[in-house]
Amino acid sequence: MTKPRTLGELKAAGYRRRSVKDEIRHNLIKKLRSRTPLFPDIVGFQDSVIPQIVNALMARHNFILLGLRGQAKSRLLRELVTLLDDEIPVLAGSEVNDDPLAPISAYGRGLIRERGDDAPISWADRDARYVEKLATPDVTIADLLGDVDPIKAARGGHLLSDELTIHYGLLPRANRGIFAINELPDLAGKIQVGLFNIMQEGDIQIKGYPVRLPLDVMLAFSANPEDYTARGKIISPLKDRIGVEIQTHYPTSLADGMAITGQEAWTKRESVEMDVAITIPAVVSEVIEQIAFVARTDKRIDRRSGVSQRLPISVLECVVSNAERRGLQNGECVVRPRLADIYSAIPAIVGKIELEYEGEQVGGDRIARELIRKACGEVFDDRCSGIDLREVLDHFNQGRTLLISEMASDDEVLNEFRSVSGLLEAASSGRLEVESRASSIVSCELLLEGLYALKKIARSEARGATNYTQARPERPARGAHYDDWTGGKVN
Predict the structure, then answer these.
(1) What share of the chain is helix, strand, coil (3-state, %, to 5)?
(2) What sign results for the dihedral spanned by CA atoms 362, 367, 373, 379?
(3) Which residue from 101, 148, 282, 491 has the fewest beta carbons nearer than 10 Å?
(4) Reduced to 3 states, what is the DSSP secondary structure of residue 468?
(5) CATH code of residue 47
(6) Are residues 189 and 274 in the same domain?
(7) 88 in a domain, yes or no?
(8) What residue numbers bound the domain in which 79 lies?
(9) E strand segments, 267-396
(10) Residue 408: how many CB atoms within 10 A of its CB?
(11) Are residues 89 and 142 in the same domain?
(12) Domain assignment present for 465
């Protein structure tokens, strides 16, 4: 069907006006009735955040997402676009998406007066109706609302007081769409005053002109919870005019975290230039995700900043790169990352955490290593419960060592593991992957890293190799006693 191209054709087609909030509500109701998944790319919020967003949209409220960094706030705001119509009619040439039946700009009103039903119509798609701005202290009121444009005045022969000389800001250009501001409290106070006037009165003023622009816009914001308080950087009148505050959160389960990391990380490296396929063992993904969970409870890491979901994403990408480098060097066609590759991603971990004073005294590199050790211990405790490792421990307690090169091939590593009494046999029991050489390697690594996490053996690194040795005896605290080897988690 041909789309109307003039105002007369649009009227003949039966077009009716509706606000953007009514449009979103209407499309949301259709999805709910048809049980179409809402925001399918968002993982872990189906029973917490998304129902609250739905309630806010059904009530036609502006809302704010409060959460620490890396909690998919921006991703959620951008997903709102899916609730807009595919296209809407606008007056051709309008900078503010003028509704053909009720233009708000001087340009739009003048076009209707001159052309009437012959006024040209264009169509704006949903992506063009979403405008996003990252709040920074240097944002001006002109950036958001607009300013006088002397060049327009000179070219058109207009007085500076003429509305046609206005260069519209981001907010008017989002008319009949969604306007999102990330990190709202970072806006200067006077800019926040301008925002709450728009939310209260529904119009804007530019440079003191007696201009009324009754904007039709859905406003959505994001902020850090600590900034969004009376002691923070948000002004109370603006806070009062935002309809709903919705708290986001980090993944509550390891499965959700792994799903998000697997979805966002760049791990498909196959290309024409490199004939190397990457497959990632589940144990490796689990340990990487567990690092983030452990970090979020570590008292030496600043909880006010949070530990972003970007940490496991970056770590997984670095782990894959290290395995890819090894595969290319050894001429292997299929490469599977190992637990040892996680240590090569320590720079990615250090770059994603902010330390408290106590953590700064210890150092980011050391804390990153401790996070890996504890994460391996958690996964070891979950997957290797009940496995008899006495023979493996006896091997090291007799003073023997195990040296594994980071760049060693699968065959070379397996040969080294065979030298440890009972290791491969232990790896074939429990909930471990042993269907291939590479998975056997990861299973053996998990057993060794688990014993290291429990301080049953020692681990060190030197010149691109990992060395497992007998644990150094520790002097017990007064009144303490040692239990027999029964397994257990590391505190």
Answers:
(1) 45, 15, 40
(2) positive
(3) 491
(4) strand
(5) 3.40.50.300
(6) no
(7) yes
(8) 7-247
(9) 277-278, 334-335
(10) 21
(11) yes
(12) yes
Examine residue 313 and state whether it is found in any structural domain, yes or no.
yes
Number of Cβ within a 10 Å radius of residue 40: 10
pLDDT in tens, the chain (491 residues): 688 999 999 999 999 999 999 999 999 999 999 999 999 999 999 999 999 999 999 999 999 999 999 999 999 999 999 999 999 999 999 989 999 999 988 889 999 999 999 999 999 999 999 999 999 888 888 888 877 665 665 566 665 556 666 778 898 899 999 999 999 998 888 888 878 777 766 666 666 566 677 889 999 999 998 888 755 688 888 888 899 999 999 999 999 999 999 999 999 876 545 567 888 999 999 999 999 999 999 999 998 889 999 999 999 999 999 999 998 898 888 888 999 999 999 999 999 999 998 889 999 999 999 999 999 999 999 988 889 999 999 999 999 999 999 999 999 999 999 999 999 999 887 566 655 566 789 999 999 999 999 999 999 998 889 999 998 776 555 454 444 444 444 33
Encode 75-111: b = buried (16+ Cβ within 10 Å), e = exposed.
Answer: ebbbbbbbbbeeebbbbeebebbbbbeebbbbbbeeb
Same domain membership, residue 269 and residue 222:
no
Q: How many residues does the chain have?
A: 491
CB 103 within 8 A of CB 71: no
Q: Is 177 left (phi over 0), alpha (psi -120 to 50) or beta?
A: beta
Q: Amino acid identity of 360?
A: E
Tokens linked to 386: 């009940």
**Cβ proximity of 346 and 369 under 8 Å:** yes
Q: Are 451 and 392 in contact (CB under 8 A)?
A: yes
- The candidate with the shortest Cα–Cα distance to 183, out of 51, 59, 301, 71, is 71
Question: Are 410 and 438 within 8 A, CB to CB?
Answer: yes
Q: Are residues 186 and 283 in the same domain?
A: no
Taking the CA of residue 264 as centre, how many other CA atoms within 13 Å lie in the half-sphere pointing to its CB?
23
Using DSSP bridges, classify how beta strands 130-134 and 177-182 pair: parallel, antiparallel or unpaired: parallel
Q: Same structural domain for residues 230 and 337?
A: no
